[in-house]
């Protein structure tokens, strides 16, 4: 699917299928990857490393929340478990019976598939991996230009850019405390957005309902969009919740990159906006 901007020429909307709060498919599974790609989006995989050094897709430090794991193993750290151990557990059935027998994928498995489709992209959200091992794996499969590395630690983004310059890097900035988000953005702007290609701003709802839904002020988001555009970079936003009016307002502001928890709802609203 290619959704083209009706106001800004041929610039298309790009969107990330956010994983750990995705409401449509079980997170960090091949089902989730293919679901996003088939909808025209970019899946995200949260990456951790097992005791035997395999990089896998899982968000939490333990398997308890997402896997059908025996009680004795629920609170063990992923870094203490082997890949074979983790493969014994179901990664889909907790989400829904139709996803029974989904397994935690290795990053090798995902990158091998990615390498066969040059038009596809993938977000890697850093949780706990050796960055040199990650860089080597990306280079092994020749997919660096298809990868967006995401983290909230600027130093990790710098390291990945040094190891694999072709990888795009994105710093995500939470906004639970808007003042801190503004300070963080101001700081990275002062570095010249060193080693970054994108910045993602989280958009949680404001405590009190008002005309502008989100905690971060609209004027700040507009300024961030301007500063990044002048630097040849992109702004991505992660609205925790949105309805048609909210999304259309963000689109009207000129924002062309999103992260969403409800991909099918997002795509439906995009089609309304452009048609």
Automatic annotation (TrEMBL):
InterPro entries from the UniProt entry: GP_PDE_dom, PLC-like_Pdiesterase_TIM-brl
PROSITE patterns xref list: GP_PDE (PS51704)
Any one Pfam family match given in the protein's UniProt record, by short name: GDPD
UniProt domain GP-PDE: residue ranges: 13-270
Listed name of the protein: Glycerophosphodiester phosphodiesterase family protein
Species of provenance: Paenibacillus chondroitinus
